[in-house]
Amino acid sequence: MVIMAPFQGAEAGSIPVTRSEGMKYINVLAGKYSTMKIRIFEIRTLLESKLKKLGFTASESKIIADEYIQGELKGKSSHGIFTFIRVYEKIKRRQRGRYKIIINKAAYAYIEGNKDIGQIVADKAIRLAISKAKKRGVAMVGGGNIQAFLRPATWAEIAARENMVALCFNFGGGPLMAPTGAREAILSTNPIGIGIPYKPYPFVIDMATSNRAFYNVRLARKLNTTIPKDWGIDRWGKPTADPNKLVAVLPFGGYKGYALALALEILTGPLVKTRVGRRSDAMRGFLFIVIDPKVFTTRKEFDRDIRALIRDVKTAKKIKGVKNILIPGERAFQTEQERLKSGFFDLDERVINEIRVL
After folding, report:
1. Into how many domains does the chain fold?
2. Is residue 38 part of a domain?
3. Which of 90, 210, 317, 347 is the most exposed place for a label (fewest CB within 10 A)?
């Protein structure tokens, strides 16, 4: 089975997609878009400098920039450097508030976002949940009225690296997805991040409840490419390959994805006092649940049993053409290690130039 990485050779105007867990592909004709090598530390410095220009402190700028760097490191270009431009312009237009923890109990907390930056609130929330879970065994931190962060998996992985299990959900920010049977967007894509400690890399689920995260559609519009017809529908409810005619993405797995998206919209909407559905005002809600595995078992037994299960999965009889069965987080880890070793990103030159003039 051939697995293609983002921005590698594809026929002009097409976006071949291989069905592999957690991966999002926008493949563009090699040479049609000019790419450039840029050192990872250079792009990090550039992002942080732009954020400091907006008044963020050095530590805040690092927290925010980290998520864009992590997305690019892990091969998730639709949630990487490309995204910074759009979000930066939004941050610049909006007046930033400051989050406030208004409920703070032993095993749970609620954060009123006050339109604060998503990454800053999420970083505080996951570290607060980890701290509480280490003392109480399980903890939950929810909040609402925040600006966007990119991936709940970012925060789930932080917990997994602290030897905690994490379930991280967030409201996707507004109507983007059609419920099964509808021809308009009502629900958001409501992504899921699940982190489980495992060596040498955490088991991490990173997925939207739509066939593809909406950022992929925005990236296709930016690059003027077509999209697979199963991503979404036009105003008449017909599948479309034109990202500019798409009015709603579709849930993965038909009604099952729709049901999951609706449940998560409740958990990251009404439960945490965030407007969703047609009442959405583009502010986000989130729910982070962190569990210490030692509440039910020992760490040694937990690690042993996970290793045994992963071994069973990896050694399963394979269908023709498959060389390796991947587990969630494995490909992202491999890509991250390769890019860290090289020290460079290959990025669209236009994206870099746009960031430089922000």
Report:
1. 1
2. no
3. 317
